[in-house]
Design goal:
Layout lengths: L40 H16 L3 H11 L4 H16 L1 H9 L11 H16 L4 H15 L2 H14 L4 H9 L5 H9 L3 H13 L7 H9 L4 E5 L7 H5 L3 E2 L6 E4 L8 H4 L3 E3 L2 H12 L11 E4 L6 H13 L2 E5 L3 H11 L7 E4 L6 H4 L4 E7 L14 H4 L2 H21 E11 L8 H8 L5 E3 L2 H8 L8 E2 L2 E3 L2 H4 L5 E7 L3
Parallel strand pairs: 5-6, 5-8, 6-7, 8-9
Antiparallel strand pairs: 1-3, 1-4, 2-3, 9-13, 10-13, 11-12, 12-13
Helix pairs in contact: 1-2, 1-3, 1-5, 3-5, 4-5, 5-6, 5-7, 6-7, 14-15, 14-21, 19-20
């Protein structure tokens, strides 16, 4: 027979419910029937984003705007949803380590929807100015509404355990006794260990000190501001500045927008003003401005070899139009080529052509070659982790190996196709030496008719400050923690005329 304790009236409250035996917990101020049973719209948007990323391999930046519109969030709620979704994705590694201390089973045995709800709850508790009771109540209410009553009880219990310590104390417990600096940085700054190692190696390869790694990782976790560019000769920044933007301090015709939906602005909807990271603006302008050995002049022919989705092509097209030049934008995938056409729509149509084909065959299609070629090569995107919060958890070390033949093939094709006296810009949104300096060195080996230009000086020449300190051994590398840009790499390669 099961042993039962005597019925002790002193353990019951005025409604006849038994009090907690330990005496350390308190009842909610609301009766169960009065507790939140609906999903707060902003938190629901964040949950939908995490679910799409987890279940469908979706990109957060593509899912989020549609979900915000579907739930008709105002500006403040949209900002909250954005921070909650992106923050939960960026902090996933740290938050999962904390949850691992509070859940009685391996996290991969949880329902994925429950795990996503928990991550949303942990981010509110650890990194947002949300009162703990509100974070718990609203997250449990979200779970009740979209997952079910049973899981909501688990979520409530786990988040209560999480809430008993601030983030600093959790981190002290997680890294206590660890001596391996890569593991410590991985846990503290929520990056996979292989990426921490890769970024440490990248800092050294580009002439910086490995001690900067924590600052770099921390910059990856900061919510990035929106950078915009007015297409030269086509757009103006007046509307964006009136809406609260401030002039960019790195590159001309740029503006920084801290909060709000820039897509509602007419200048942005028309394509005359475009969202584009300042680092991308700088590398495109550097190629357009660098002096050709042939002297240049009107009538140059330019090529964007890997043009999709079209941001750099639009900026290059606008600059080309001002100088009397023409641009070919090459993109192998038709759906991305459609995006390139859309991006170029604001540029006079006689200036540009979109080619849909493998970039490694462009030389046969254009035997006369080009004066300036941009090779914005497909890469791991390790330099844009702050803007693509889910990317750090999707990328694998094998991606570096898989992309290498394509990167070398595209750059080699560009070198074969550029005219004597012309310049090729090799660009990646990754600082990893396997995708940057190693590719350039391999493709230039044995080619005596090519030489590296001073890419750092070229960036300085088109920057407002004129002193970016981004150059190292002729190539240039921008950094989030130094320049406030994505980690764009640039090599400028000139073909001799003889």
């Amino acid at each position: 027979m099961t042993d039962r304790r005597p019925n002790d009236p002193s353990r019951r409250n005025e409604r006849g419910r038994e009090r907690n035996r330990s005496g350390s917990r308190k009842f909610s101020t609301a009766a169960p029937s009065e507790r939140t049973r609906r999903a707060d719209p902003a938190r629901l948007v964040a949950f939908e984003v995490l679910r799409a990323v987890s279940a469908d391999d979706a990109y957060a930046n593509l899912v989020l705007p549609g979900s915000i519109r579907k739930h008709r969030l105002g500006r403040q709620d949209a900002g909250f949803a954005t921070e909650l979704a992106y923050g939960a994705l960026r902090g996933q590694g740290t938050y999962d380590a904390i949850l691992g201390q509070c859940v009685d089973r391996p996290l991969d045995q949880l329902d994925p929807a429950v795990l996503d709800a928990l991550r949303i709850g942990v981010h509110q508790l650890m990194a947002m100015r949300v009162p703990p009771h509100a974070a718990l109540d609203q997250t449990v209410g979200l779970a009740r509404a979209v997952i079910g009553a049973g899981p909501s009880s688990l979520i409530n219990a786990v988040l209560r355990k999480v809430s008993r310590r601030p983030l600093a104390e959790w981190l002290d417990e997680l890294v206590g006794g660890m001596e391996e600096p890569v593991r410590v940085s991985s846990l503290k700054f929520s990056h996979p260990e292989w990426i921490v190692r890769a970024l440490r190696q990248s800092l050294v390869a580009h002439g910086r000190n490995v001690s900067e790694i924590d600052n770099l990782l921390q910059a990856d976790n900061a919510a990035p501001e929106v950078n915009l560019v007015a297409l030269p000769g086509i757009g103006t920044l007046d509307e964006v500045l009136q809406a609260g933007g401030r002039p960019g301090d790195l590159v001309e015709d740029s503006v920084v927008f801290a909060a709000g939906d820039v897509g509602r602005l007419e200048s942005v909807r028309s394509g005359k003003v475009r969202v584009q990271d300042a680092g991308s603006q700088l590398v495109a302008r550097a190629l357009a401005a660098v002096e050709l050995d042939s002297g240049g002049g009107k009538g140059e022919s330019w090529l964007d070899l890997c043009a999709g989705p079209g941001g750099k092509a639009a900026l290059l097209g606008a600059v080309a139009a001002q100088g009397g030049h023409v641009l070919v934008a090459n993109e192998p995938a038709e759906h991305r080529a459609a995006l390139v056409r859309q991006a170029l729509d604001a540029v006079p149509s006689h200036v540009w052509t979109v080619r849909v084909d493998d970039g490694r065959t462009v030389g046969a299609a254009y035997p006369d070659g080009f004066d300036r070629i941009l090779v914005d090569a497909p890469c791991t995107g390790l330099g844009a982790l702050r803007r693509r919060p889910e990317s750090r958890w999707r990328r694998k070390p094998a991606d570096l190996v898989d992309l290498a033949p394509l990167q070398r093939g595209l750059l080699s094709e560009a070198l074969d196709t550029v005219r004597p006296g012309g310049v090729v810009a090799y660009v990646t949104c990754s600082p990893h030496p396997a995708e940057t300096t190693a590719v350039v060195q391999d493709c230039l080996r044995g080619r005596k008719d090519f030489s590296l230009l001073d890419a750092g000086a070229a960036l300085d020449a088109v920057s407002i400050t004129g002193a970016l300190n981004a150059g190292h051994e002729s190539t240039a590398q921008l950094w989030p923690h130094v320049h406030g840009t994505d980690a764009m790499f640039l090599a400028l390669i000139r073909r001799s005329r003889h």
